[in-house]
Amino acid sequence: MTGVQTCALPICINGATRIRLARVNADGTLDTNFVASAANGPSFTTVSHIALQTNSQIVIAGSFGTVNDAPHTNIARLNNDGTLDTSFNAAIDTSPNALALQSDGRILIGGAFTTVNGQPLTHIASLKSNGTLDTTFVTTTDGNVDSFAVQSDANVLIAGNFNTVNSQPRHHIARLTPNGSVDTSFQNGMAGADSYVGCVWYDPAG
Questions:
Q1: What is the pLDDT along the chain (206 residues), one digit of tens a residue?
Q2: Which of 36, 121, 170, 200 has the CA that lies 20 to 30 A from 1?
Q3: Contacts of residue 157, Cβ cutoff 8 Å, sequence gap at least 6
Q4: How far apart are CA 22 and CA 16, in angstroms?
């Protein structure tokens, strides 16, 4: 799929109004084949995270209560033309701070939330490709997870405002295996970061 996703407040692009979501072509012209909207009633609305899947479907997350006028709480998935993927059903009780796709299609979310799909989960969770909870992924942190970096080997770097991961000391940065367990070969016995880490990135060169 060519083009660039954009997310913001209601905007006018090349004379056309788009509500929180728009797509432009590679040359900057508005892609009129993509039409989608997000809203949150009288509350502030934002789409703060976008992830493009290999099948060209688009996972969006932010602070919203409806997508294309259908109820969806803070996360949803769109088809390539902006229509809602009704097979994807997930809900987060507050806007997530981080969103990432794993190589097998699972979806990682991180932030200050306390429930996902009505289940008590804090700071980090994994969803299956249909939006249901991935119960094989088990991770707990004592603070927010605000950034992900998925490595080519499917391990996941996480960063944020935490000091323990799965009850093991990890100060603001850690690495997880694909099932959410702590990778003990990374930062084991090290001091980590002495304050909040807001972003982490993976260099494929190692």
A1: 456 555 555 567 788 888 889 999 999 999 999 999 999 877 788 999 999 999 999 999 999 999 999 999 999 999 999 999 999 999 999 999 999 999 899 999 999 999 999 999 999 999 999 999 999 999 999 999 999 999 999 999 999 999 999 999 999 999 999 999 999 999 888 888 999 999 999 988 76
A2: 200
A3: 148, 149, 150, 151, 173, 174, 175, 176, 200, 202
A4: 10
Residue in this structure with the two tokens 């909040």, named with its chain if needed:
196
Task: At 175, list the tokens.
Answer: 């690495």
Helix (H) or strand (E) holding 143: none
Give CA torsion, residues 136, 141, 144, 147, to 10 deg.
-60
